[in-house]
Amino acid sequence: MNIFAEKDIAQEYDAYYGTALGKQIDLQEKQLIEDLIQPIAPGNLLEIGCGTGHWTAFFSQHGFNIIATDVSEAMLEQARKKDLPNTQIQMASVLQLPFPDNHFDQVAVVTALEFCGDIPRAFAEIRRVLKPGGWLIAGCLNADSVLGKNKAQDPVFKHGHFMNETELLEHLSSFGKPVIKTGVHLSPEFKLVSETTDQEAIPGVFMAATVQKAS
After folding, report:
1. How far are the Cα atoms of 47, 52, 144, 171 from residue 75, in angstroms, in the given order?
2. What are phi and psi of 114, to 5 degrees?
3. Would you state the pLDDT for residue 199?
4. Which of 49, 77, 142, 199 would give a disulfide with 185, using CB separation of 3.0 to 4.6 Å?
5. How far apart are CA 203 and CA 176, in angstroms?
6. Using an 8 Å Cβ cutoff, are 97 and 129 in contact?
7. What pTM did the predictor assign?
8. In terms of DSSP bridges, do strands 65-70 and 104-110 run parallel, antiparallel, or are they unpaired?
9. What angle do CA 150, 156, 162 make, to 5 degrees?
């Protein structure tokens, strides 16, 4: 089941980022990704699971030339409305990408692998289309976080499969030597924790990662 194919989900997706908590979480997630992509020279980037184009806009602002893909026409409809520069939008599945081998300088996938249905196959397809020396930029939701442990109660997240940091590291290590940073520390009451000492005891919800594909 693709929960994101439903038009009401697609239309309401961006509304979350307009809430006070959504803005804070978005800022933290983007800071994690921004820190990690500093050494990467923007090139031709494939974005997988672009959804409504929320992260597409981020990569566009950072100078990437983007082919943004998703399996949900309802989500792509919202993304097209944003008319983002340096961006082509098309329907495609990460499980069968319609692109040649070793084609892209970068591949980005942010909170989409969780819903693809076959994570090992998705990573295999990403590795296939990514050039040797190219970069994978990933953002994933942490199974060990309060969000991961309570996802069965969420109408959207219950449809996904979350990885923990060990699982993510194992997948990324098939490309090269990954760097993973975690953030967005939420308490059991789903409130952001800002104190460093408290953060150390609470697994971050968001795992940001980059890895360069071995030549």
Report:
1. 14, 5, 28, 27
2. -60, -25
3. 63
4. 199
5. 25
6. yes
7. 0.92
8. unpaired
9. 55
